[in-house]
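for the recovery benchmark. tokens below, seq after
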């Protein structure tokens, strides 16, 4: 009875979660390929003329624009040749399959091959892509697509430079509108400093594994590594949540959907590191192995996978890039350090395991067995058989001496 109730409760919870996630996030008109970091800052400065209920912002470190329409009437985003591209209104989100922008904006680089039906002069052919009031899309007008930085940035790489002011045309009914924004080049940070601090920190954490596991300092060191690993896991979870928020997630359902679809492995390794840290704090059996494994996964999936932020000025997070680097450094320091500490403790434990030593009785039995195998007779040893013979010979010599006159 209890098992049936639990099963039904689980099914209801799963259905509710699925429904929440399915309706939580804005529609992505094209695939999301958000960068892990960039040196170009895209900013939306406003909409002209302003319209109550219409909002636009840059998401995914400026890789896409997000438009939310609560005006109660349709608003169109205009493509690169003046054709209708997207339509957002009370009945959902639609894209024009005749617009070249529909295909060019599927990737951040805009290198998609256009199909034959992509004709900006053709009549719009609307296809529904979502039923919400929001849509996100890559827009080449708000991005920097050159391979090298601007000439001004190369001439003075220690300060910011305005690349251009950009605009994206809109249309609300017959009224023309524009999204206005700026694109700036931002000097990248000194990545060597961040890597140097990270390496020193992970070496310090790894050195805790040198303390003897069976001693009081060794037990405290294990607890310390566990606490640090849990903190690193929390930093990884915070960073993944920040990436989901920067991608435009709104509400609990939107954040969960963003985590499950964009940063799943980083989230799972962060939660696993927290659990492994608690396990080590309790000093449970096999804590050394658990800490080493969780630390390696944390460093790989949540640390190395996001290491680009050490060398980029703009991080995919709703807070400053410096805080994003601090979180990433914490993840790498605790992840790699816990792996090293756990491995050192496991190695020391294996080398200190005592080997069984043979007892005197065992040695004697082994010697007798070896002797028996050597003569193949299974009888008395040669030394034991020679002793009676020697005794008889001595008695004969004594009798011979006594019989002399």
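predicted aa per position
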């Amino acid at each position: 009875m209890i098992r049936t109730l639990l099963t039904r409760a689980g099914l209801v919870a799963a259905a509710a979660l699925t429904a929440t996630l399915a309706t939580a996030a804005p529609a992505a008109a094209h695939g999301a390929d958000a960068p892990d970091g960039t040196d170009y800052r895209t900013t939306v400065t406003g909409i002209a003329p302003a319209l109550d209920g219409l909002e636009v912002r840059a998401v995914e470190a400026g890789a896409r624009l997000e438009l939310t329409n609560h005006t109660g009437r349709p608003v169109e985003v205009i493509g690169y040749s003046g054709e209708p591209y997207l339509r957002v209104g009370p009945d959902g989100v639609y894209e024009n399959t005749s617009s070249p922008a529909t295909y060019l904006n599927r990737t951040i680089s805009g290198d998609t091959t256009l199909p034959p039906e992509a004709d900006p002069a053709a009549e719009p052919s609307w296809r529904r892509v979502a039923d919400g009031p929001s849509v996100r899309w890559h827009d080449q007008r708000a991005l920097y697509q050159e391979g090298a930085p601007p000439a001004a940035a190369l001439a003075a790489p220690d300060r910011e430079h305005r690349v251009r002011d950009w605009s994206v045309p809109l249309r609300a009914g017959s009224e023309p509108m524009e999204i206005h924004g700026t694109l700036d080049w931002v000097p990248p940070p000194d990545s060597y400093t961040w890597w140097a601090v990270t390496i020193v920190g992970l070496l310090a954490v790894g050195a805790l594994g040198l303390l003897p596991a069976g001693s009081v300092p060794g037990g405290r060191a294990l607890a310390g590594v566990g606490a640090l690993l849990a903190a690193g896991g929390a930093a990884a979870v915070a960073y993944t949540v920040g990436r989901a928020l920067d991608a435009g997630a709104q509400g609990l359902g939107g954040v969960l959907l963003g985590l499950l679809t964009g940063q799943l492995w980083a989230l799972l390794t962060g939660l696993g590191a927290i659990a492994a840290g608690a396990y080590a704090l309790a000093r449970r059996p096999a804590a050394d192995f658990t800490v080493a494994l969780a630390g390696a996964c944390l460093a790989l999936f949540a640390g190395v996978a996001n290491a680009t932020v050490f060398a980029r000025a703009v991080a995919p997070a709703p807070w400053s890039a410096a805080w994003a680097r601090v979180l990433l450094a914490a993840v790498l320091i605790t992840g790699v350090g816990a792996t090293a500490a756990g491995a050192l403790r496991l190695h020391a434990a294996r080398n200190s395991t005592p080997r069984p030593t043979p007892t005197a009785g065992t040695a004697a039995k082994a010697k007798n067995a070896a002797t028996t195998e050597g003569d193949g007779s299974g009888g008395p040893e040669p030394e034991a058989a020679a002793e009676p013979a020697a005794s008889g010979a001595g008695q004969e010599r004594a009798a011979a001496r006594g019989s002399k006159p």
